[in-house]
Amino acid sequence: MIQKKICMVGAFATGKTSLVSRFVNSIFSEKYYTTVGVKIDKKTIDIQAKKINLILWDIHGEDEFQKVRMSYLRGSSAYLLVVDGTRNNTLEKAFDLQTRVENTLGQVPFILVLNKWDMTEEWEIETTEIDAVIQKGWTVMKTSAKNGLGVEEVFQTIAKKILDG
């Protein structure tokens, strides 16, 4: 069986833990728990007639008090850059993190995940900003950990990118 490490990276409270919980356990909790350090989960999926064991590293969110430890990224085959669509500053943080992650890991597959798509009435990120990111050649996917929209697809897509890479 193929095993691949995928890191969840983003600002604090973007929904990284909720996305992993929805994907691994099919659950969502309204309670907010700050990730301290790193939380590791696993899920085996079938991609292209192969079993792949995804080792998901849910790294604590970055904020003004705490920087993501780049050492957590070592050995990663890919990462998900998670943004909270209701907070535009999390997109700016994602751009900064992407540069730092790439400087640490080199070029590995990643997806910019626009989370909280169920809250579109509170959305702060403009379509033009999303289009600009797509123009850079980035893969952008919309998700909602709350209702499950796009969650399975994000993990399937990143697994395919790893296998195709």
TrEMBL record:
Pfam families per the record?
Ras (PF00071)
This protein's UniProt keywords: GTP-binding, Nucleotide-binding
The record ties this protein, via CDD domains, to: Rab
What SUPFAM superfamilies is this protein classified in?
P-loop containing nucleoside triphosphate hydrolases
Give an example GO molecular function: GTP binding
Family matches, as InterPro entries: P-loop_NTPase, Small_GTP-bd, Small_GTPase
The molecule here is called: GTP-binding protein
Per the UniProt entry, what species is this protein from, by scientific name?
Answer: Amazonocrinis nigriterrae CENA67
